[in-house]
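Let us practice reading a record.
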Amino acid sequence: MERHERMRRLLLVPAAGLAAAGLWMAALAGAEDDPTVRTRGYGQPTCDSPQQVYDTRITKAPKRKTPSRKAKVEFQAFYCEYPDLSPPAASTMAFDCKLDSKKAKSCSPPVRYRKLKKGKHKLRVRVTGPKSNPGKTGDPTPDVAKWKVTG
């Protein structure tokens, strides 16, 4: 297939659940049948409800076992209906982070922790939606990173 035959035109389509607010997002026409579109390596989203527009993905976390008492975790939001599109800018999205048994707090990627205690740690991260309207379209199931501080 020639390169120009694989090119797709850009369409503006209403984002699920956001069309009433007048928000639109770009989608590639015919992307679902073109294997060249899935080149970014992003996983398929796990969207649990029709109202959910975003899914959370941890993209970088500490190794399973580490001597370091510091941790840096990177994460992003992805579109449920259009996972092949570039993720929305992290600066426009609201996230919650919950480390171990502590309360969930608002956070932005990347999140950094210092002076972690020796032992197992578990970070749960979820996108709650756009900063302009958090909670309505976010991810009900957080993505999880687990690691053990050995030093």
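A brief commentary: The beta strands are 10-14, 24-28, 54-60, 65-66, 71-79, 93-99, 105-107, 111-113, 119-130, 143-149.
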